[in-house]
Amino acid sequence: MARYDERICRCALNRLFGFRPDIAHAMVDVFGSAAEVFAADRKSLPPGTARYFSREGGISDREYEKSETELTALGKRGCRFLCDTDPGYPPLLKECPDHPLGLYVRSGTAPEETFCPDRTFISVVGTRDMSCYGREWCRRIVSDLADTGSGICIVSGLALGCDITAHRAAMERGIPTIAVLPTGIDAVYPRRHAADAARIAGSARCAVITDYPPGTVPLQVNFIRRNRIIAGISEATILIESKERGGGMISARLAFSYDRDVYALPGRIDDTRSKGCNLLIREEIASPVISTDTLAAGLGLGSRRKMRTAADDREILSRRFSAHLSAADISSMADILMRIRKDRGTDIGELASSCGISYRKAAELTSMLESDGLISIDLMQRCTIRIK
Length: 388
Hints:
45% of the residues lie in helices and 12% in strands. It is of the alpha/beta class. It has three domains: 76 residues, no CATH class; 188 residues, Rossmann fold, CATH 3.40.50; 76 residues, Arc Repressor Mutant, subunit A. A nine-stranded mixed beta sheet has the order 1-2-6-5-4-3-7-8-9, with helices on both faces. The protein has a two-stranded antiparallel ribbon with strand order 10-11. β10 and β11 form a beta hairpin. α7 packs parallel to α8. It starts with 5 loop residues before the first helix and ends with a strand.
């Protein structure tokens, strides 16, 4: 082939050396560009490079053609390949020595606006097996950071537990979020989050991204490679909950190796889901999240707006329920909200006792609060605040 397109060539090199980006970068440096790599005379290759051309599945016109066909098909589906030489490529990720030559992107936003330089990218990661404590604080952290009015973007991996909680909290607050996949851009993992991925990809200044070529399945090793993007793309990484080993711990340690800020939510010393966070704090890899105000200050986001008070609760509940409830019931509902804030995970029976009302009345009022999106109730009837 007489001429080679730089984007297609970078896509091909990314596919060939995705697990060894150092080789892809070295080849581009030696030859001057990705296009020059494919156009090189096979009879006079620089020393040490011949093995990457001669082996099966190495650099060849066949691999170029595969990438050309791939990108044409993806373009028809609204996806694109963003090269690390493009203005829209995440600037912080580009600083990482192992950054990919390009990213597959699915987004409804114009290419040059996908990764906006005026946004502070913050990764929120953690376990799939979240506790009520972790879920509440994950949502509260995202919500309170949004309350600062600073331009932030929440980055996570679309996985069960912490990841999807962070993405949904960001979408609810109308702030951008980036989902990094451990699969090709033509798939979503887990499948149950396909609707969330579609919503993210279709929202302004949001995107679903990956450096894996189409057809890549979610093998365990793929998550480790994916985590370097989550860590590298952001100025700071916040670990919500994690065992001593897990994807969240890997992301946090990678972020530390990239000289980025790392924060961890402290937890009970006897809770396995907090052992990883407590360990990072002990090793001085992560700073403890002792309040969302100090977290926002540490991130340089300024102060958030005034916290809601009990009087605010009664005013809001009165506006929403005065047509259906008596003043006494609204007062009991406000007491329930306050109790749940003070004692996350408290069940309906405990609420009835502490608020001095019958179990039937507590069940009725909590059901109304849940239907109105103010609280969440799990299968064990434990209640938590639903942070807006």
